[in-house]
Amino acid sequence: MPLSEDEQRILSEIESQLRETDPGLAEHVGSTTVYSDSLRKLRWGVVAFVASLVLTIVLLTQHFALGFLGFVGMVVAALVIESNARRMGRAGINEATRAFRSSGIRSYFNEAGERAKDRFRRDDEI
Fold first, then answer.
1. Which run of H or of E encompasses 50?
2. CA-to-CA dists, residue 55 to 41, 74, 80, 87, 99, angstroms
């Protein structure tokens, strides 16, 4: 159901006030999608799965029980991956892969590094 002209006018006023009062929040809200949270959790799940796999291989050389703990970590990570992939659905995965292909892997990691630096930068350095 489309918005009426009056509702569109009110919405545009709210958007302009948001941009004036908090431009950082307005940029963040404008750049995120419905699938951003699930994609972030999916990435961390993949990282945890790979780390648990390496941990399992290393710990199996030390002791069987420790290797089993690594295996349990792999199962938990696989469950996280599966649940977030379901939450994203086919449309979210297609959107994420399209965005990833357009920007490329190098720019993804460069932007991640810049975001990490910005988080730890002190206010007097800006």
1. helix 36-60
2. 20, 9, 18, 28, 31
The reported pLDDT for the residue numbered 75 is 96
Q: Is the pTM of this model over 0.70?
A: no
Q: Where are the domains of the chain?
A: 1-31, 34-125
How far is 35 from 25, CA to CA, in rounded Å?
18
Quote the CA–CA distance of 40 and 24 in Å, as a whole number.
Answer: 20
In whole angstroms, give the CA distance from residue 59 to residue 51: 12
User: In sequence order, which residues have a C-beta less than 8 Å from that of residue 3 and are 6 or more positions away?
Assistant: 11
pLDDT (tens digit per residue) in 33-83: 667 777 788 889 999 999 999 999 999 988 888 899 999 999 999 999 998
Tokens, residue 51? 């780390």
Average confidence score pLDDT of the chain:
80
Q: How far apart are the C-alpha atoms of 18 and 22, rounded to whole Å?
A: 6
Q: Which of 86, 84, 61, 59 is nearest to 73 (CA)?
A: 59
